[in-house]
Description:
This protein has helices at 17-20, 61-74, 109-149, 156-174, 190-202, 205-258; strands at 3-10, 30-31, 35-39, 45-49, 53-57, 83-91, 96-98, 101-104. With 259 residues, the chain is of the alpha+beta class.
Amino acid sequence: MDRATFRAYHLTEALKLTSVLNLFPEKPFRASGTEVVYRFGRDQYLIIYNFGSMVCFNLDPPREDQALSVMRQFVSPKDEIVTSEEFVLEIGPRLNVEFRRVILDKPTFEKIQIIALVLAQSTALEYFENLANQALQQSGTISEMLEKEGKIGKKDSELVRFIGFCLNVKQKVISSTYLLDSPEPTWESQVLEQLYLQMADMFELRERYRTLEYKLKIVQETVEIISDLSRTRSMWYVEITIVLLIALEVVLFVYELAR
């Protein structure tokens, strides 16, 4: 093997790996609480992660298409493959991570496993980035409406759904900090640790996560302002209703006196 390709796909927000074991007739090469690995022939792997990503390494196109088809049918119909990564492995004199490729002197399963994990983390992170961008875009629309018209301009039910969406995105991102965890093999191997750190730097995992947190902070500030304005608007409706009721009582009282 002088050259091989990694293809990573993010399928859904979470996968129950015990159920995944029933999808393929082959016996897993390795299985744990976080990943299931299938080996097809020599140096051909399918790795499925509990955070909803899968990586195909050096798989034949028919085998890869079949695996994708099986996993697509397994996940919820609303889920689609919205993020993916492709990366090349080449054999060379020493370890070197470059744009869209990594060079290894001695490819082992452990090294393939590290590279695949980073690619899977990157696709999952991109999925959360897309969610955060949606929330940021919606909050920006509301902010622009406040600037131009001086009012929110949306029904309370729409605001509640928007606030719920933002809170849900924030919760998902908070629970995704595992995407920055170093894999166990790196704890006991300096070579694997170096490979993981170079791959993580290449895909800017930590920088992207910090940017993601910053975007959500902006969204949270907008949500708090909208909540306050919505509460103020509701109180204004209540006050107007009370005034109208008092005015009605006065009118009725005057009417009774006139009779």
